[in-house]
Design brief:
four-stranded antiparallel β-sheet; globular; 0% helix; single chain; 318 residues; disordered N terminus
């Protein structure tokens, strides 16, 4: 009988732990280069960034880069040339040249910088200052913080920028809200009520929805970015959800459940959880998906490893 390629009825489900990679102490943030060749992982108590070669079958750590005190978040410019790392206890952002994997600049920002996101044109980086209740905007051409006066709410943590670059969405942990910043005027244009202790935020590839993890509710809030209002029903996931990322086609969203030691998969068409049975390491924190949608990289805060999830896209039937 001929071999026929048919779509799998559960396309994009993660099926297996493809690899487990040892990194530094207490890995938190993770970002993947636009070409999918490397993953950058912040090691919170290692004061370093591990660089993983994602093109090899062994997922080898090729570099360990010293940065500031307690690196937390990481974002990579659209051209892949720079990685921006927030150092919580240094009140700074380290800029890494990804060609040489060396720190080429250090930028002073506010108190306890945490989340970081870069505009689609690569011209600006937005950094949440968790204990400063502010957001710093960095000019990535000059690598200077040109604005640190945007009041975002109490304990701003996560940040994501819409695909058109028009708005930045900031989670305010102690305000149970998300602030929407107009990136042209740098004014707050909306404050959206969500669940308890909102942390991670990701925007769908088509820019129509933002997904927010509510740590203390075990849920995900979905925001309509056209109206900047939250949908009335939240999505129940695992215990203490933290990180969130979309597949490149926007069909699925992946959520790390910090106290569940698991990954939840949300089908975005109907906002239902497909599975919460994907067991990873201890206290999964951040998650990033390769540009080809083939793998998810999950940082495990409590076990000092990164779990690599193979994402099944098709099934060969004979």
């Amino acid at each position: 009988m001929a071999t026929v390629e048919r779509p799998h009825p559960h396309s994009w489900w993660p099926r297996t732990i493809a690899d487990t990679i040892e990194v530094g102490a207490f890995p938190s943030g993770v970002a993947i280069t636009p070409d999918g060749a490397r993953a950058y992982v912040t090691n919170y108590y290692g004061n370093s960034v591990s660089v993983i070669d994602t093109t090899t079958t062994t997922n080898t750590v090729t570099d360990i880069i010293a940065v500031g005190a307690n690196p937390y978040g990481v974002a990579i410019t659209p051209d892949g040339a720079r990685a921006y790392v927030t150092n919580q206890n240094s009140r700074s952002v380290s800029v890494i040249d990804t060609a040489t994997n060396t720190v080429v600049d250090v930028i002073a920002v506010g108190a306890s910088p945490s989340g970081v996101a870069i505009s689609p044109d690569g011209a600006r980086a937005y950094v949440t200052n968790q204990f400063g209740n502010s957001v710093s905007m960095i000019d990535t051409i000059t690598n200077t913080a040109v604005l640190t006066t945007i009041v975002a709410g109490e304990n701003p943590l996560g940040v994501a920028i819409s695909p058109d670059g028009a708005c930045a969405y900031v989670t305010n942990q102690n305000s149970r809200s998300v602030s929407v910043i107009d990136t042209i005027t740098n004014d707050i244009v909306a404050i959206i009520a969500v669940g308890a202790s909102p942390s991670g935020v990701a925007i769908s590839p088509d820019g129509t929805h933002a997904y927010v993890t509510n740590q203390n509710n075990g849920s995900v809030s979905v925001i309509d970015t056209i109206t900047n209002t939250a949908l009335p029903t939240t999505i129940v996931v695992g215990a203490n959800p933290f990180g969130v990322a979309f597949t490149p086609d926007g069909v699925r969203a992946y959520v790390t459940n910090y106290y569940g030691n698991s990954l939840s998969v949300i089908t975005t068409a109907n906002n239902t959880v497909t599975t919460t049975a994907i067991v990873v390491g201890a206290y999964p924190f951040g998650v990033a998906i390769t540009p080809d949608g083939a793998r998810a990289y999950v940082t495990n805060w409590g076990s000092n490893v990164v779990s690599v999830i193979a994402i099944e896209q098709a099934l060969t039937l004979t």
